[in-house]
Every structure is written in structure tokens, then in C-alpha cells.
Amino acid sequence: MRDHVPPPARRRTTRGAAVLTAAGLALAGSLAVTAPSGAATAAPENLALVGTASASSTEQDLDWLAPRFVNDGDASTRWSSSYDDANWVQVELAEPSPVDHVTISWPGACAADYVVQTSTDGTTWTDRERVTIATCWRTDVVQLGVTEPVRFVRMQGIDRASQWGYSIYVLLYTSDQGFFLGEHGWFDKRFMYDESIRMPLLVSYPRAIPAGRVVPQLVTNVDFARTILDAAGVPPVAGMQGVSFWPQLTTDPDAPTQDAVYYRYYENDDYWHHTLAHYGIRTERYKLIYFYNDGMGLPGTSGVTYPPEWELYDLQEDPQELRNVYLDPAYAQVRAELTQRLHALQAELGDAPHPSDVAARAVAATV
């Protein structure tokens, strides 16, 4: 350990929100400083909430990026520095406390070289541990073992791993829709069968999402935008479709999302894939599809039409969707309920049924 001499000025950006949790501190959204086991403290669980944050700078002097947002306990706010110098962010604890270790989760904009410092007076700083790792998307657990009480904890940047600064964001990884490899006799995708409409989604935000959490509720890619806005604390635009599943990812994993999701494919019998036009809904257990098989003169369609038909699958009894039970008398009530829900959801989303959909006209007549 040595008294810190500030390094030469370097060009960098430091961004993020910070929280102090359980006798510890989280800077840039997911940096946690933890007291040794059994350390006595009269402070509340989140020590940063009663601490005072400060930083080397604020990006463009914008108030909504001010240092106070680094320890406000709100995942939707953040502090951001200017684009130059060796920026730092620190929290003055409400009372001195020992520090056992620091945990920092970095995204793609990370520090390749930084030092964790402590101070008793905010003037003289002691380098506790230097970290040099060139790759991002990592979590650093920095053991400090500081047994004497300290008042200040700081992350002092030295060098960046990329052209960006130091940032903590929500990381989402997804892909295009699934792909048929012979299932149902098909290739490519576009059909409403599960092999095609299911897609992977991985979300990483160590500050708020427990590792290994699975959200089994119904979610579609239309919901991604509202979820990201919710995570950032930004209200959705009026009329925006989809629902946010941020609560299910973070604080309320068992809350329902939606009872059904809607799907439609328009390019009937297109030149390359020859997928027939259809729409339908999927619930937790059932899937109802109407193949209207008509391009309706839209670009990319062949102009050829085919007789329409319905398909209904019980995903619990038939997860591979190999048995169409639309005409099975045992499913008459299910069919009626799904048909009504399909057309209600269709209207809610501003879509219209195909003219050949007699069931839609029947539902409209009863409303």
C-alpha cells in the first residue's frame, strides 16, 4: 500500500449509477464494497443511500447525470463524467467502516487498468488494489482486507479497454427467430410453429437480476423496447405496443406478463420460401392459427391463393405440434375461447382479420 499520487491525465469517460449495499458500496451501478463478516455498523443496509457522492466531473454539466445519482439506489439513473482526464467517482460513507472486498461488474465499456482506493479524510488516498484486465464483460472481485475504518471509497480509472469510457449497462443478447431443420417437413422459418417463433434472450444486469433467473412467462420481441425503456426509467411513447417484463427479471419473477401473444405473417407464397399467410395467438398452453393463404396484393406475394384452414394445438399434450385438434369435439370450448381472444387481441393491436375469417364476423356480431 502507498499514498496515491494522481496519474497523468488520460482521455476517458466514466459512466453509471452506483449503490452501496450491505455495509458496502456499488459504484457505476455494480461496484460493491463489503465490510468484513461480523463488522459492527449502525448504518442501514444500503450505506450509500446515506452517503454523499462526488466525482471528478459531470458530462456536459447535465443535472440528470450528476454524481448524486451514483448512490441513489435507483437502477434507472446514473452519473456520467466528461470525456477527458483520469476520472473517478467516490462515496463518502455516513460513518467509517472496514472494507473486505470490492466487486465490480463491467460491460463492453470497461477499465483495463484501475485502482481501488480508500481514505479517512478525502484528501490523502491509499491505493488498496490495482486491477489490470484487458477484456470486458467481466466481474472483478477485488480483495482489500482493510480492517481499519475508512470514510471514503473510490474507483480511480487509469486506462480503458476500448475507445469508450467506464460504463455499466444492461446487457441483452438475442438473435433472429428459430429455424426449421426438417421439423414439420419445413426449412427456414416464418411459420408460427414453436421451432420458428421461439428465440433466445439472455439478460445480464448483476446489480438487479439474480444469476440463473428464468422468466417462463409469455414474452415476445415486441416487448424488448418497453423493457429496455423501463430499465432506463424512461416512459414508453403513447401507443407503443408490447409490455415490459423488467419486473419479472428483477423484483417480481412470478408476476404474469400477458395471457396471449399475437403473430401474423403477410408474404403469402413468396418466391423464395412459399410460406402461406396466416395469423394466430399463442397462450401458455394452446396455439390457434388461421391460414388465410392470400397475399391480398401485397408486395412480395405470389398472387396465388389457397383455401383457408384453421389449426389448433394443445402444447401441453402435443409440444411438437403434430396433432391438429381444431375439429376435435373435446376442444370445442377451448376453440371458442381462443377464437374470441384472437380477434379481441387483433383489434386491440389495430390489425384486421382477413375477409374470409367467418369466425371474426361471428365474434363481431355478438359484441
State the helical fraction: 10-25%
What structural class do you assign from the helix and strand content? alpha+beta
SS field, number of helical segments: 5
**Poorly predicted ranges (pLDDT <50, ≥5 residues)?**
1-30, 39-45
> What oligomeric assembly is this protein in?
single chain
What is the radius of gyration? Answer: 27 Å
Shape: elongated
The total of beta strands comes to 17
End-to-end separation:
77 Å
CATH class of the largest domain: Mainly Beta
Give the second-level CATH assignment, the architecture of the largest domain.
Sandwich
Question: Which characteristics define this entry?
Answer:
single chain; 367 residues; alpha+beta; Jelly Rolls; Arylsulfatase, C-terminal domain; seven-stranded antiparallel sheet; four-stranded antiparallel sheet; 5 helices; 12% helix; disordered N terminus
Task: Spell out the blueprint of helices and strands.
Elements: E1 2-3, E2 15-16, E3 31-34, E4 52-55, E5 79-80, E6 88-106, E7 111-119, E8 126-132, E9 138-160, E10 171-174, E11 180-181, E12 187-188, H1 194-197, E13 201-204, H2 224-232, H3 246-250, E14 261-265, E15 278-282, E16 286-291, E17 309-314, H4 332-348, H5 358-366
Antiparallel strand pairs: 1-8, 2-5, 3-6, 4-6, 6-9, 7-8, 7-9, 10-13, 11-12, 14-15, 15-16, 16-17
Structure description:
By secondary structure, the chain is an alpha+beta fold. The chain folds into 2 domains: 2-160, Sandwich (Jelly Rolls); 172-204 and 259-366, Arylsulfatase, C-terminal domain (2-Layer Sandwich). The protein is built from 5 helices and 17 strands. The strands form 5 sheets. Strands 1, 3, 4, 6, 7, 8 and 9 form a 7-stranded antiparallel β-sheet that branches. It has a 4-stranded antiparallel β-sheet with strand order 14-15-16-17, covered by helices on one side. Strand 11 and strand 12 (187-188) form a beta hairpin. It is elongated and about 80 Å long. It starts with a strand and ends with a helix.
